[in-house]
Amino acid sequence: MLSVLKNIPGKLFLILSLLTGLVSAFVNPIMIYFLVDELQIKPLYIGVYTVSLTISGLIISQWLGSLADKGLSSRKMYLLATTGMVLALLVYSYTDSFTVVVITGISLMAFGNAAMPQMLTISRQWASNNDINIESYNAQIRACISLAWVIGPPLGYMLVGVYGFASSFLLAAFFGVISLAFVFLLVPEQTIHHSIKQQGEPPTVPLSFWLLALAIMFGSTGNIMYASSLPLYTINELHLPSYAPGLLMGIVACLEIPVMLFSSRLSKTIAKKSLMKIGFCFGVAFYLGIYHATELWHFMFLQLINAIFYGLFAGVGLTLLQEQLPKRIGFTSAVYSNGLKIGVMVGSTVTGIIAQYFSFQLANLGAAMVVFMAVTCVMLFSYLKEQQR
Hints:
The chain has helices spanning 2-6, 9-25, 28-38, 46-69, 74-93, 98-112, 115-129, 134-163, 165-185, 196-199, 207-237, 244-266, 272-292, 296-324, 329-357, 362-388. It is an all-alpha fold and 389 residues long. It has one domain (2-186, 204-388): Up-down Bundle (Growth Hormone, Chain: A).
């Protein structure tokens, strides 16, 4: 059976993206809930965890991304990153100390944050080496990650409600161990044809690239402001059922998968930067709708708009960014992943501040403003690209 699987590496990377996504899907949605409800910290201190974890993760992830461009094995770095994530989750499962959680995040989970960009790097290396349609393949990768979010949040919240937070962390660690075994036994090493080492000096990174990266960061910021405030807003402020946050996250993850897959077809007739603008406009509409929503069916209906927003944003964002520096895939994959993580850091911190002094509901209005800034960045990106031509 192993020999059969090794002959279809493209499918292997899709499975790997699902496994990697499952680890995050069981942890990220409940983390702020865990800090506030289980560890009893003030919402204002949410930023202490997210900022410390994100900064340490950014440094490690970007460093590993540059090493990948120089020819170091992304496969081995993925194994290192996932090992760090599994160890961190085991600590999270058996501690009730906020200090221990922060120290573990800086020392172990920071390496775990590099697992996703290394997975994106090695899958893109395989696609480039085998003349695969990059737009379609990246959309499939992102769709598999979204599939993980169909499964993770609903099951994670259910486990938290029945068995406590440790059960969700341990299940995430279990999927991390499966990922390690999967990569070690089945995923082949990739030959890099276009690395910094082979090409001499790395190409200059233009301002347009950073504007696009900023737009991705703002999109992530708006998404996490909504996602992190959702459980505490719906359960504590609106008194909706405890299963509501997981249900809503599962619905949108399910709906955004076909949008992501269809985005690769749309990109053949509509420019990717235009699809990004359209997606962000849907995002602004979604967060304004959530701000005014009060019933569970309101939230469920609005997930369709959310799916269009995130499906287009995630479906074309990675490919569009990689196209700007095609010979630095490790660098661009790390920038993309780190842009999402910076968005998580900023969004979680701002959400905590807003909740401390106002309410979790108001965080959704802030999300709408942030995504509007993302639209502005893409428009400036488009202008600069036209000027370059």
